[in-house]
Amino acid sequence: MEKYNFETLSTLLGQTLRTRVDDTEVEVEILDVARTATHGDKWDAFALYLKHQNDDVMFNQGIYEFSHPELGTAQLFVSPNSHEELEIIFSRRIQPQSEQ
Hints:
Layout: H1 6-10, E1 16-21, E2 24-35, E3 43-51, E4 62-68, E5 72-80, E6 85-93
Antiparallel strand pairs: 1-2, 2-3, 3-6, 4-5, 5-6
């Protein structure tokens, strides 16, 4: 999960992640990675936007396991913005140097 971070995902625009919806394997394209309003000194926060082109698949809001050759696998909470576009919000508390 640590590899699924803003810096790494930003370098993978246009690449795909794989997941499953029911019994169907689906590839989703990384469209954009954008900082969110809560990002700052205490929080690393960003949104990951994905797109799929499989008309036979309907994503529901929920947790899906995604995989990528460089990133490995991670279970991520997905919110569909439309039939094709998905959004995943990451919000991690930044640990002060003294606590690491």
